[in-house]
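Ticket #4471: structure export looks truncated?
Reporter: QA, pipeline team
Priority: medium

Steps to reproduce: submit the single chain below to the structure queue and open the exported record.
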Amino acid sequence: MSVEVEVKALLAKAERFIRSAEVLKEAGDLESAVSRLYYAMFFCAEALLLIKGLSFSRHGSVIAAFGEHFVKPGLLPAEMHHWLRDAFDKRQIADYEARPVFVKKDVAILREQAEKFLAETRRFLGL
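Actual output as written to the record:
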């Protein structure tokens, strides 16, 4: 699969996951919604790294490389790196904590960040 096709597929998946998160939120499954929103941002970061020929097997490596290659040189806003790191931490809690800790407002904020992350990624890539 070409890089362009892979990038577009990752962005389409990110968009789908944002929509899925809303369905999950409305169904009361806030933890799964948080997880989907993290992955939406993660897929955007992976797509951006792919255009530089970079691919990583660990989430932490993707997050660090995103910061190094896109935020540190000023190509993308620093808040995006913060959102991605924060979403990763929340996803860890959502996926591994037994008791629910999130409220709908948490999901709404994360959704707004994921939507902005996707929009900024699309803008940067010209898609």
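Status: closed, not a bug. The export was complete when the record was re-opened. Leaving a note from the reviewer for reference: The mean pLDDT is 96.
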